[in-house]
Amino acid sequence: MTIHRPGLPEDLPPGEELWARWALLAAVEATTKEEERTSGYRTDIWIDEDGLHWDDSGCTWWVMSRTAPGRFVLYGEDESSGAKWHNPPVDMLAGGPDWLPYAELQDRLEGYELGCVYWYEGESWARAPYPDSLADDGLDCGMSRFVDRDQVLGELTDHIDGTVAGPSADTLLADAEAHRLQPQQLLRRLRGVTPDHGPRDLPAVARALGLAGLTVRLGT
After folding, report:
1. Cα–Cα dist 43/168, whole Å
2. What is the rounded CA–CA span in Å between residue 8 and residue 87?
3. How far apart are alpha carbons 28 and 31 in whole angstroms?
4. What average pLDDT does the segment 174-195 reach?
């Protein structure tokens, strides 16, 4: 799936699917040790009570929050974004609905930490209008990891034990995207160690899946 530069709302998959892909990858990498860290000291991808996070402790950080059934906000920054340095300034909150986390977003804006904001409601994404002179808002570099389903599937497959019978990685991902994942099916198929040779923390994986809500469709 192509992401334009700057991004377009239609570049993003439906909110529930994007949430599920990101959350599933975050869940299979979850550990109790990382759960005990505060967000400001965590890196890579994770889920907590505030939503989904990705932070490489360098050039990119992102948050996706579910504010209500069928409502999501996606915001963050990649170093490729020129929005915060654009002249005249880009109002990244223009046209935003009243349910956005404005206090958090304004704080990020004031600290020159925000590269773009997208919101999802009524089965479609939206964002503020951009000037024609804005070359990039960072969405491509920031979100392609989760927008590209094949890339998500490849990452998930790296966690699957091919010697254990059960649903394929593609089926597990499809079930997560449809919010009908059976946690035990996933837990049985996970390798005992992570791709970076760390021990698999199945209780932490189960807790992350519970936070993500991938076992039931949103709104039911």
Report:
1. 28
2. 21
3. 9
4. 95
Instruction: Give the strand order in the sheet containing 116-121.
Output: 44-48, 51-55, 60-68, 71-78, 116-121, 124-127
Which has the closest alpha carbon to 146: 16, 8, 5, 6? 16
| E strand or H helix that includes residue 153 | helix 149-157
Segment holding 189, helix H or strand E: helix 183-189
Please name every residue paired with 46 in a beta bridge, in sequence order, or none if there are none. 53
Give tens-digit pLDDT for 69-100: 999 999 999 999 989 889 988 999 999 999 99
Cβ atoms within 10 A of the Cβ of 152, count?
23
Q: What phi and psi, each to the nearest 5 degrees, are found at residue 158?
A: -60, -20
Using left for φ > 0, alpha for ψ between -120 and 50, and beta otherwise, residue 83 falls in alpha
Distance CA 101, CA 99 (A): 6
